[in-house]
């Protein structure tokens, strides 16, 4: 299971957690994914979509 949006491809991002004393530790940011039933190629299908794509209307929900 890839933590990746099926619409825009947004995935895990990496960087540093920086403390008050300026120590650097590796950390990751994961996309806010939701499993929704959407219309894909004319038929309903369950896909993983980030909330940014849901809000912007890039996904047609199947109710």
UniProtKB/TrEMBL annotation:
Q: Where is the signal peptide?
A: none
What is the top-level taxon of the source organism?
Answer: Bacteria
Mind telling me which InterPro entries this protein's record contains? Bacterial_rp_bL28, Ribosomal_bL28, Ribosomal_bL28/bL31-like_sf, Ribosomal_bL28_bact-type, Ribosomal_bL28_sf
- A Pfam family that this protein carries is Ribosomal_L28
UniProt KW Protein transport keyword: no
Q: Which GO terms describe its molecular function?
A: structural constituent of ribosome
**Gene Ontology biological process terms in this record:** translation
Would you name any one GO CC term?
ribosome
Is this entry keyworded Ribosomal protein?
A: yes
Protein keywords: Ribonucleoprotein, Ribosomal protein
The record's similarity note reads: Belongs to the bacterial ribosomal protein bL28 family.
Q: Return the HAMAP family for the record.
A: Ribosomal_bL28 (MF_00373)
* Name of the featured protein: Large ribosomal subunit protein bL28
Name the species this protein comes from: Thermohalobacter berrensis
